[in-house]
User: Fold PiggyBac transposable element-derived protein domain-containing protein from Phytophthora palmivora.
Amino acid sequence: MGTRVSFDEGTIPNRSQFNPIRVYNKDKPHKYGTKCYMTCWAETGYCSRISLYKLFLIPFRIIQNILIDTNGNMCYSEFDRVEMYLGAVMNKQKSKGVAQKAVIRNVAKTFEGQQGKRLVIADNFYTSCSLALKLLEMGFYYVRTHCKARLGWPRSLPFAQKSRPRGMARGTYRIAQPSNILI
Assistant:
């Protein structure tokens, strides 16, 4: 894997009522399917790790790109690692920070035992100041868009406008860094 890693969610399209981990996401082209978290190499788009969205881990083993579950069923896989979580009933307290925990779990497992600083790039779905600080503790830099309504956003940063000002060209960005954290 390179030094820049992209982390995002995706949906494997499936409308079957027999799919126990089917979710509805109105923002995706395929509304129903299996939600997964993907850790990809930012330069090439190579997907190094896919983690399906649910809570219990089903043990899989991969033999030369063939995925075999504990029952001996086989299916083809082009990924280095595949993890599947199945079946728990979500309660509100447990589900807080699921996306942030997914970033930490997948990035940590992808780079287990590897040296060097990495840059993790994510979208607005994964933003939180606590996630950025946790990744910095783990030795990863983190770039993302940030919603100022999220928990942990400093009130002293004066971004009062709701949309891009007329004088600001498209593609222009602002950088904010806390003064008490040294990089």
Observations:
- The chain has one domain: 4-144.
